[in-house]
């Protein structure tokens, strides 16, 4: 795939980048080089490679999804400016 000057101008417009006419040819070369590299990557055989999220093998730590109150409700509301039992009191904002 090759990028022409009109495509460079369109990309610059979409990216909201001001590009002078004398810069178009240089940017065209850079974009073509990037696209050539991407095409080169598509030729690599990755059929035996497992997908990975990191370069080091890791196992995600898992725990049971259990809902609790934290076991410390008094400490949770201790610094609240207004409270009742274990609930925060807030001013009414809707009539």
UniProtKB/TrEMBL annotation:
Pfam family, one: GatC
GO biological process, one term: regulation of translational fidelity
Enzyme Commission designation: 6.3.5.-
Alphabetic keyword roster: ATP-binding, Ligase, Nucleotide-binding, Protein biosynthesis
Keyword Flavoprotein among UniProt keywords: no
Gene3D superfamilies: Glu-tRNAGln amidotransferase C subunit, N-terminal domain
Catalytic activities: L-aspartyl-tRNA(Asn) + L-glutamine + ATP + H2O = L-asparaginyl-tRNA(Asn) + L-glutamate + ADP + phosphate + 2 H(+); L-glutamyl-tRNA(Gln) + L-glutamine + ATP + H2O = L-glutaminyl-tRNA(Gln) + L-glutamate + ADP + phosphate + H(+)
An MF annotation (GO) of this entry: asparaginyl-tRNA synthase (glutamine-hydrolyzing) activity
Self-association and partners: Heterotrimer of A, B and C subunits.
Annotated NCBIfam families: gatC
Function per UniProt: Allows the formation of correctly charged Asn-tRNA(Asn) or Gln-tRNA(Gln) through the transamidation of misacylated Asp-tRNA(Asn) or Glu-tRNA(Gln) in organisms which lack either or both of asparaginyl-tRNA or glutaminyl-tRNA synthetases. The reaction takes place in the presence of glutamine and ATP through an activated phospho-Asp-tRNA(Asn) or phospho-Glu-tRNA(Gln).
Sequence similarity: Belongs to the GatC family.
Protein name as annotated: Aspartyl/glutamyl-tRNA(Asn/Gln) amidotransferase subunit C
Provenance organism: Rhodoplanes serenus
């Amino acid at each position: 795939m090759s990028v022409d000057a009109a495509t460079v101008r369109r990309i610059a417009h979409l990216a909201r980048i001001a590009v002078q006419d004398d810069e178009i040819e240089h940017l065209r070369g850079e974009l073509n080089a990037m696209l050539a590299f991407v095409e080169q990557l598509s030729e690599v055989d990755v059929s035996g490679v497992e997908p990975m999220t990191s370069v080091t093998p890791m196992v995600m730590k898992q725990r049971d999804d259990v809902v609790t109150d934290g076991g410390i409700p008094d400490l949770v509301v201790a610094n609240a400016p207004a409270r009742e039992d274990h609930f925060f009191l807030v001013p009414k904002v809707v009539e």
